[in-house]
Amino acid sequence: MSVERVIFHVDMDAFFVSVEEIFDPTLKGKPVVVGGLAHERGVVAAASYEVRKFGVHSAMPLRHAYRLCPQAVFIPGHPDRYRSYSRQVRAVLDDFSPQVKMASIDEAYLDMTGSKRLLGPPLNVANSLHETIKEKIRLPCSIGIGTSRLVAKIASDMAKPNGILSVLPGAEDRFLAPLDVARIPGVGKVSQENLCKYGIHKIGQLTRLQEEHLRSIWGKAGVSLVAKSRGLDVDMWSSPGMSVPDKPKSISHETTFRDDTTKQDLIDATLVKLVQLVGRRLRGYGLHGRTIQLKLRYADFKTITRARTLIRSTQLDTVILASIRELFSQNWNEDKAIRLLGVQIGSLETTSGQLDWIDDPRDRKWKQALEATDAVRNRFGESSIGLASAMKNAHQERVHENTVDVPERKLE
DNA sequence: TCTGGGGTCCTAGGACCC
DNA sequence: TCTGGGGTCCTAGGACCC
């Protein structure tokens, strides 16, 4: 018989807005939107509780938010501040549990199993954690307590704002049954509508369904849905040791133009910039990637992705750029204005696809140059150095070498 | 009401190999 | 002389999360 797990889910309230209020206390009590200016192309990243009364919520287009609440204060946001405050929160959490997993910049899971002897009853501990974050960091949060991460997360959601909600062991079903299926993490708009077609609206209805029935309709997703409806951790929630994936599986950057464009030079300069951003972070992680993907969104919002996998993984902007330019020229329909461009690299590995002793001297040269500029950029900022002109025509002749036709090298 | 940016995971089909 | 089944890799698209 295993010990009942005790999981805390700590979720910061309107995190970006709350951080902005620390820097500008006059914002307190006002309708505030973080994410961009009122007439920009973009969406709401965080909404204060005051502005939510007007129907504004996150992920809503900024223009729409403006129409609902013209008197709101619109703030583009300060990602560095949010990251810094996120680290401060984490430091406090680490004092309460050796098992902390940050799920995103503003939420975390704490495994508090077995902490009772040391710290006291979970509800008291949560109270003291709540107080500590309030006093030390001056930020409000909500805490959910449950026997699984799923239950703890839903509980913290219902405790908002500025509250604590504990679901006692054995009470999971009673707690979950009356809730909308959309409360389940992983059930979004589409799944909710699909369930709705079968007359399923509440979590309790899912619990009563036969697993076989759901499997026949929704396959694997259906099976995990039944488990979730019973408050059990499945798939991404399941790892018992709550291991942290510290290395990313892909790295990407994308940008939406202020105005849709067909301008070749603007497009190419944008691709170069995106490649540089991706390349720099790739090297920052010490990773190499093999699959390079271009994302293209047209003015009508039709979006395509086109990918190519290299024979050897790379860390070099020049190699990435050559692939991206090729993918772009092969796929851009020149009549159509472009709304968004994106660059992604995946199939990441810690080791280079190349062995040192067959290292190409040209690659080595580029690698050194990039390391130097990375260092300068890290110290002095993004616009301090541009490799754009230098990269304009470099590596054109190398495209083939990295993508097609490399004769199989019999080395091993 | 015109819809960001950075991710993860899943599905489905085709190529290719045995 | 129309035809198998399993496994892996690759690509494209989409749901979902914060």
Description:
This protein is an alpha+beta fold and 412 residues long. Among the domains are: 15-79, 3-Layer(aba) Sandwich (MutS, DNA mismatch repair protein, domain I), CATH 3.40.1170; 175-237, 5' to 3' exonuclease, C-terminal subdomain (DNA polymerase, domain 1, Orthogonal Bundle); 251-403, 2-Layer Sandwich (Dna Ligase, domain 1). Helix content is 42%, strand content 18%. It has 16 helices and 12 strands. It has helices at residues 15-23, 49-52, 62-68, 79-96, 116-119, 122-137, 149-159, 172-176, 189-197, 203-208, 211-229, 264-285, 317-331, 361-380, 388-391, 399-403, and strands at 7-12, 32-34, 46-47, 73-75, 100-104, 107-111, 141-146, 164-166, 251-261, 289-298, 303-314, 338-346. A 5-stranded mixed β-sheet has the order 5-6-1-7-8. Helix 12 (264-285) packs antiparallel against helix 13. The chain is globular. It binds a DNA duplex (18 and 18 nucleotides) through residues 15, 35-36, 40-45, 58-65, 67-68, 103-107, 185-191, 219-221, 235-236, 245, 248-256, 291, 293, 301, 303-309, 340, 342, 344.
Brief write-up:
With 412 residues, the protein is an alpha+beta fold.
Strand order of the largest sheet: 5-6-1-7-8
Number of helices: 16
Based on DSSP secondary structure assignment, what is the total number of beta strands? 12
- Segments where pLDDT lies below 50 for 5+ residues? 236-243, 386-390, 392-412
The CATH superfamily name of one domain is: DNA polymerase, Y-family, little finger domain
The termini sit apart by 51 Å
What would the CATH topology of one domain be?
A: Dna Ligase, domain 1
- Percent of residues in beta strands: 15-25%
Based on Cα principal axes, name the global outline: globular
Computed Rg: 25 Å
Mean pLDDT: 87
Q: What pattern of helices and strands is seen along the backbone?
A: EHEEHHEHEEHHEHEHHHHEHEEHEHHH
Structural class: alpha+beta
User: What percent of residues adopt helix (DSSP H or I)?
Assistant: 40-55%
Largest sheet: 5 strands, mixed
